[in-house]
Task: inverse folding
């Protein structure tokens, strides 16, 4: 496109500035919405994955439920428990187990038990744990230490506390290590303070928890050898989902549960959770991209309609140019160039304002600190480039209809038109 052609195109467009601006707004809005929707889906994905935290990908959990099939004289609906002997059995019988950590909780999910220090009282979750937990679910030890093997062996009444427990029970600046807090009227010595490495609600729950050696917990709360559930991590390269199935199969034999009973055990694992998250957000990104492209096409169709009106208004001008010897290809090039100029300029403006809004949103979220389940929204260059390429191609095809409409008019008929 040389300078004279460009000047001619601009002069045509500025003759009807309002019509040109409105048609550009349609395209700019379409690509703006595409950028915003893709950035929003990435922000949600980043937030959800941050909530998952730093837990090992090859980790999961297993707990007992109710049987659903009668077996060996037992009726269905039987409730059974797992215990510390089951954990030892699994460690000895399955070599692919890297870490297995039996766990107990007092008060139920997000339940509470009173803990006091001096005149300060709080209601927190109390967990019975083993040292292996931190290999499955990393924790940031800010003071002291976590539970160790000697604590388990000697059934020591010690605990590591979350940072929210620390700020609730102790005076600011006070060193809690070595101090005794009361849990259900039992004196327990604080040996460490932890800060959760998770995000969102999971982080808040962990920071408001007290972690005791599981043996001391069982004695304090009269659990005997029973456990609530266990976390497990497979050796590197071995699928956690396959390991869980082997664990369930062995426990079914040990607990006299029908091999086909799928409801006797509950389980979750990070492998499946991450796969679900990835599939969910792949679908969300596809939907966002599709909706954005449809909005973009709506704007481009608007430009096509405007160009058809423009060609109709310029019938006499086109007829004069044809009569003076202008080839049909020149007229077609003129109309397509006008369409492309509008779509490209509008597309660049839409991309500019879309990226600007995303950057402003990122800065606002950065100032808020922990932004929960929505963080760091971004849109990839490939998405923007692909959208812009689609815009250009669509602009060419959109200009073809009014262009061929223009060249179909016979010069003599065009000259007669008033």
Result:
């Amino acid at each position: 496109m040389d300078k004279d052609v460009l000047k001619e195109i601009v002069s045509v467009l500025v003759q009807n500035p309002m019509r040109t601006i409105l048609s550009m707004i349609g395209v700019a809005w379409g690509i703006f919405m595409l950028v915003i929707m893709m950035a929003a889906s990435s922000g949600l994905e980043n937030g959800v994955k941050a909530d998952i935290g730093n837990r090992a990908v090859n980790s999961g959990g297993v707990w007992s439920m109710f049987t659903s099939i009668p077996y060996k004289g037992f009726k269905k609906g039987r409730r059974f428990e797992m215990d510390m002997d089951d954990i030892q059995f699994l460690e000895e019988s399955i070599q692919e187990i890297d870490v297995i950590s039996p766990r107990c909780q007092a008060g139920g999910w997000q339940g509470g038990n009173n803990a006091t220090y001096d005149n300060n009282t709080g209601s927190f979750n109390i967990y019975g744990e083993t040292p292996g937990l931190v290999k499955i679910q990393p924790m940031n030890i800010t003071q002291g230490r976590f539970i160790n093997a000697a604590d388990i062996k000697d059934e020591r009444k010690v605990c590591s506390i979350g940072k929210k427990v620390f700020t609730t029970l102790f005076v600011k600046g006070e060193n809690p290590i070595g101090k005794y807090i009361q849990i259900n009227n039992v004196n327990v010595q604080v040996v460490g303070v932890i800060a959760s490495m998770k995000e969102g609600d999971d982080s808040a729950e962990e920071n408001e928890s007290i972690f005791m050696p599981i043996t001391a917990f069982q004695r304090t709360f009269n659990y005997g050898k029973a456990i609530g559930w266990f976390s497990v991590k497979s050796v590197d390269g071995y699928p956690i989902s396959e390991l869980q199935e082997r664990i369930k199969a062995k426990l079914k034999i040990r607990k006299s549960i029908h091999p086909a009973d799928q409801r006797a055990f509950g389980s979750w694992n990070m492998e499946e959770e991450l796969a679900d998250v990835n599939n969910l957000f792949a679908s969300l990104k596809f939907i966002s991209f599709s909706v954005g492209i449809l909005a973009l096409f709506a704007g481009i169709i608007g430009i096509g309609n405007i160009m058809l009106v423009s060609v109709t208004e310029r019938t006499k001008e086109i007829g004069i140019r044809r009569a003076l010897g202008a080839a049909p290809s020149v007229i077609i090039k003129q109309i397509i160039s006008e369409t492309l100029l509008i779509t490209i300029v509008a597309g660049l403006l839409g991309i500019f304002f879309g990226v600007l809004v995303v950057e402003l949103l990122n800065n606002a979220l950065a100032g808020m600190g922990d932004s929960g389940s929505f963080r760091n929204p971004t849109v990839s260059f490939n998405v923007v480039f692909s959208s812009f390429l689609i815009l250009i191609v669509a602009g060419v095809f959109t200009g073809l209809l009014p262009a061929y409409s223009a060249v179909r008019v016979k010069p003599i008929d065009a000259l007669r038109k008033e």
Notes: The first strand starts at residue 59 and ends at 64. The CA atoms of residues 97 and 234 lie 5 Å apart.
